[in-house]
Amino acid sequence: MKNSIIKRCAMLVVALACYASAGAQDVAEAYDTTSNDFCARVDGAFEWEPVKNLSLEAELQLRLKDDLSSVDRFQTTFGLNYEVCDYVAIGADYVLINNHDSVDKMWEKPRHRLNVNVEGSVRLGRVELSLRERVQTTFRTDSVNRFEKPDPEMILRSKLQAEYSIRHSRWTPYVMFELHNTLNAPAVVANYKTAELTRDNYITRYRAGVGAKYRLSRNHRLEFYYIFDYDRSYDIDYKGNKGDLKGYVRENEFRHIFGISYKFKL
Prior knowledge:
The strands form 2 sheets. Strands 1-2-3-4-6-7-8-9-12-13-14 form an 11-stranded mixed beta barrel. It has a two-stranded antiparallel sheet with strand order 10-11. The protein has one domain: Porin (Beta Barrel), CATH 2.40.160. Helices cover 9% and strands 64% of the residues. The longest helix is centred in the N-terminal third of the chain and has 25 residues. It is mostly beta strands.
């Protein structure tokens, strides 16, 4: 009796392993594509502090891509930030994103983005270290297959920055590093019409950059920066009629981003 139970358990384990192996073989491995681009960003912002520790901000930003030869997007941001204490600040932003299709020479349907931020900072001598955690939620206005692209898309952005205050100088240089982690990316399946929707989590973007802030006067600020951006995104494509997996591509995009921003602080 005991040997019979052991044999049945062994057969069940083997059957489950074969089933899992067969399921894994049904999903094709992703193949890689690689691209490189030089990009630019120009933006202007206005900041107002109506009451102590609470600031409101509006920003317009233009982005260029394809080695600066075409418009990538134009976006408008409205946000607020509250300084809880000397070390912690919380905030929220709304962003209207207007993407531009450089092939069809037309503006795509806009997207709406909501950001919720928590930032902690500490000063060590002339160096200020800060860590910002941001939950970014992007809502689309076009129709997509939820097995191919999430709607809304949620990403956790973790940004570490170190600023150095130069004595008797208007310049404040800094270095930064940022990670983007998906929170609700769709997992790849062999056929989306027969499979359940499951979520996947992975780091989709690495960023490292250097920059400097320049104080023109009490109310006017300039900022210059360079960011190396490695975007590892997945393009999933299913056959519309049968639901079978048609393509699974890992797109490796390397971007060199140069930017300049101006802020008027009332």
